[in-house]
Amino acid sequence: MKRVVITGLGAVTPIGNTASDYWENLKNGKNGIAPITRFDASQTGITVAAEVKDFDPTQYMERKEAKRMDNFSIYGLAAAIQAVADSGIDVEKIDQDRFGVIVSSGIGGMETIQDQVIRMNKKGPQRIAPLFVPMAIGNMAAGNIAIKVGAKGICTCVVTACASATNAIGEAFRNIKYGHSDIILAGGAEATVCEIGIGGFAALTALTPAEDPERASIPFDKDRSGFVMGEGSGILVLEELEHALERGADIYAEVVGYGANCDAYHMTSPNPDGSGAGKCMKLAMDEAGIEPKDIGYINAHGTSTPSNDGAETTAIKYALGEEAYNIPISSTKSMTGHLLGAAGAVEAMACIGALQNDFVPPTIGLETPDEACDLDYVPKVGRAHAVEYALSNSLGFGGHNAVCCFKKWRDQ
């Protein structure tokens, strides 16, 4: 069995367009939620989202290249270029056949699909853009990244709704652990702040109608009323330990456990008894060879929906028993909104920041704790706390559960 470490990070998020900016803003409790600017949302009943801000794709690709991609691919490619540069990988000096990409998207090119359906209805099917399909399909963030960086190994896209990026990281971990690859770029990318994205989730009554950005994404709060749509990408470089050491790479953290299962309960609601997500957390801890007392931080799925937060609280207790009350837990969706298929990637990066800095980011919107959510959810302000192991939870529509366990890296 091979050991797997993180050697590079890249991010495009509502609170920072690099991994370092993202962590600093996360640590300082910056709110990335604001009134929607991409379109007139007045007819949707939703007024706020967590949009990517001040992002210039031409820093990473030619303008012509960007026009041939949906925003989710653009975000993913930009984050991947950052991550490769951060890792110090010289692609010409590695085995490109053992260099892979597993980058997910929950929905893919939703903006492109919306625009081209409207175009078809107005002008007829022969006026659909020639690149409609490769811009829309969900695997094209991974495909575009592989083409750009010269990764000729495994290239795939795990689609498990809001668990997608965590599954991508977990599957990359296993692929390297069992010796199939040396390096894999793993994470997720999403861009759904558009009429059909906001309108569709609003029709499902999943989004909050709150108008105040400070009271919109409020996980574990008694007054929570739905999630806030976010967008962006997070990409992590996972690398086999000896491969990383041989090339003198800087190491952020180690991946030591992964759990994946299904509630098999309901299309959109988690099992209220917490057993599915709870067992998933146990799977990740079992692979890591640790006990509940070893966990120093949990980044919760914490969507700010009435059904998720109570069920996740129950799941954490199911997995950790009484120790659950001693572990700081936060939902960084209080700052970033919900990045859907990319959420698990940026939340894994929050865990890595916590491990490196012995600091737990806050749940900034938490003012009035729900009695059913009675754990330590680090309200409002982050705190210094020793973190040796961290769990990142992701729970997706369809009952998909995914959990990754990360360990602090110490020079050996």
From TrEMBL:
GO terms for cellular component: cytosol. Residues 1-408 form the Ketosynthase family 3 (KS3) domain. It catalyses: a fatty acyl-[ACP] + malonyl-[ACP] + H(+) = a 3-oxoacyl-[ACP] + holo-[ACP] + CO2; (9Z)-hexadecenoyl-[ACP] + malonyl-[ACP] + H(+) = 3-oxo-(11Z)-octadecenoyl-[ACP] + holo-[ACP] + CO2. It comes from the Bacteria. Keywords: Acyltransferase, Fatty acid biosynthesis, Fatty acid metabolism, Lipid biosynthesis, Lipid metabolism, Transferase. InterPro entries: 3-oxoacyl-ACP_synth-2, Beta-ketoacyl_synthase, Ketoacyl_synth_AS, Ketoacyl_synth_C, Ketoacyl_synth_N, PKS_Beta-ketoAc_synthase_dom, Thiolase-like. GO terms for biological process: fatty acid biosynthetic process. PROSITE patterns: KS3_1, KS3_2. The active site is at C162 (for beta-ketoacyl synthase activity). CDD domains: KAS_I_II (cd00834). One of its GO terms (molecular function) is 3-oxoacyl-[acyl-carrier-protein] synthase activity. Pathway: Lipid metabolism; fatty acid biosynthesis. Its EC number is 2.3.1.179. It holds the Pfam family ketoacyl-synt. Belongs to the thiolase-like superfamily. Beta-ketoacyl-ACP synthases family. Involved in the type II fatty acid elongation cycle. Catalyzes the elongation of a wide range of acyl-ACP by the addition of two carbons from malonyl-ACP to an acyl acceptor. Can efficiently catalyze the conversion of palmitoleoyl-ACP (cis-hexadec-9-enoyl-ACP) to cis-vaccenoyl-ACP (cis-octadec-11-enoyl-ACP), an essential step in the thermal regulation of fatty acid composition. This is 3-oxoacyl-[acyl-carrier-protein] synthase 2. It comes from Vagococcus acidifermentans. The lineage of its organism: Bacteria, Bacillati, Bacillota, Bacilli, Lactobacillales.
